[in-house]
Amino acid sequence: MKIKTPAISLLFASVMASSASVIATEPVQPISPVKEINLAQVELGKKLFFDPRLSKSGFISCNSCHNLSMGGTDNLKTSIGHKWQQGPINSPTVLNSSLNIAQFWDGRAADLKAQAGGPIANPGEMASTHTLALDVLQSIPAYTTEFKQVFGSDKINIEQVTQAIAEFEKTLVTPNSRFDQWLLGNKNAITKQELAGYNLFKQVGCTACHNGEALGGNSFQKMGLVKAYKTSNKAEGLSGVTGKDADRFKFKVPTLRNVEMTYPYFHDGEAATLTDAVDVMGKLQLGKQFSKTENAQIVAFLKTLTGDQPSFLMPILPASVDETPRPAPFE
């Protein structure tokens, strides 16, 4: 191991201080790699995330709607549930979801653990019950052994299931985007057009909602501040949780990280492309009609936000046994 000379050490410290100074003046911060994690829970949660046996059909897993090969989404306007049911709302990305103020578009789950149990028992999604899902897991010796190793209990409960899934999801951060590299001092990481897009993004006020590490996810805002948003989607947002009419049509601001991968856009999935989304947001939220050049600049900037995607060996799921409850895909 080489020991730095004082001159090199001073230069390194100067560069780091300069980067920190630039970051401090920006409304966006680089994504940090996950720091504290329980690796045993992560490995168990990874299996559960990909295991379709948590659904009644034995066909739908967490990864079905939050596909980690597709930006943590399913790229559909609304997701497909049990027996080909059409979901009520667009599936938000699971990537960087640990940075959200709450989970779901309406914030009805306080954290990842609270969110993880919802789809399992939702009749329009995985259509199982917590009891049935636990019976499936409890029947599989390899799972009971792993749960005991991880949680120290002979009996599997839903708290353990959701805790393990949440711990795995906490690892799904996407650092090292080209824009993060620019924030950290590499001024060649983005082009002049992309930088112009970022400056315009700040100038017109996009960063009032899309800021922080995730460029969103940290507040609820009304869809249609300047001009009403027209949609046939029945979701009413935060008001469904708070019961307050003032919260009607307020939705959690989506993260813009990896946004080029997470189409279509908005809670109803009505914006098919980033160009469409930027145009609508300009008109409805800012009262701004972007020119084609301005729109292209902002879209170019947004595409610099794609970070390193989660990469790992696919988990090999333990086999069912004779006693395992059988899937019922057509019931």
What is the strand arrangement across the widest sheet? Answer: 1-2
What number of domains?
Answer: 2
- Report the radius of gyration as a whole number of Å: 22 Å
Instruction: Using the coordinates above, name the CATH class of the largest domain.
Output: Mainly Alpha
The secondary-structure element order is HHHHHHHHHHEHEHH
CATH superfamily of the largest domain: Cytochrome c-like domain
What is the mean pLDDT? 94
Helix run count: 13
User: Which sheet architecture does the biggest sheet show?
Assistant: 2 strands, antiparallel
Strand content: under 5%
Shape: globular
Low-pLDDT residue spans: 1-5, 11-16
- At the third CATH level, what is the topology name of the largest domain? Cytochrome Bc1 Complex, Chain D, domain 2
| Gap from first CA to last CA | 64 Å
State the total count of DSSP E strands: 2
State the oligomer.
single chain
Name the structural class: mainly alpha
Instruction: Tell me roughly what share of residues is in helical segments.
Output: 25-40%
Please tell me the CATH architecture of the largest domain by its name. Answer: Orthogonal Bundle
What does this 3D model show about the protein?
The chain is mostly helical and 331 residues long. Helices cover 37% and strands 2% of the residues. The chain has 2 domains: 39-170, Orthogonal Bundle (Cytochrome Bc1 Complex, Chain D, domain 2), CATH 1.10.760; 178-305, Cytochrome c-like domain (Cytochrome Bc1 Complex, Chain D, domain 2). The chain has 13 helices and 2 strands. α12 crosses α13 (292-302). The protein is globular and about 65 Å long. The N and C termini lie far apart (64 Å). The model is unreliable at 1-5 and 11-16 (pLDDT under 50).
